[in-house]
Design goal:
The protein is of the alpha+beta class. The protein is built from 2 helices and 2 strands. It has one domain.
Length: 80
């Protein structure tokens, strides 16, 4: 049985977070079988990795506009 999961690359960050929250809620209730729990846990890990990658991607796109000493706006990469 192949339990490898694939996340839809077109899924928005918000959709992935919503699905992850639903999975966490199911797991916290504890009223599903062990096998279902494992499958849900695997899906949660994949969603978590997807969300982390989306956040990394967004961070790389962020630029901060700053003024130099002469008042000119300059663009610099965002540094966390």
């Amino acid at each position: 049985m192949d339990n490898e999961l694939r996340i839809d690359e077109e899924k928005s960050f918000e959709e992935a977070i919503f699905q992850l929250e639903q999975i966490v809620s199911k797991l916290e209730k504890g009223d599903i079988s062990l096998e279902e729990s494992i499958i849900n846990f695997q899906q949660g890990i994949e969603l978590s990795r997807y969300c982390a990658a989306k956040l990394d991607e967004a961070e790389k796109k962020i630029s901060v506009l700053l003024q130099d000493e002469e008042g000119n706006l300059i663009e610099k990469d965002f540094e966390a």
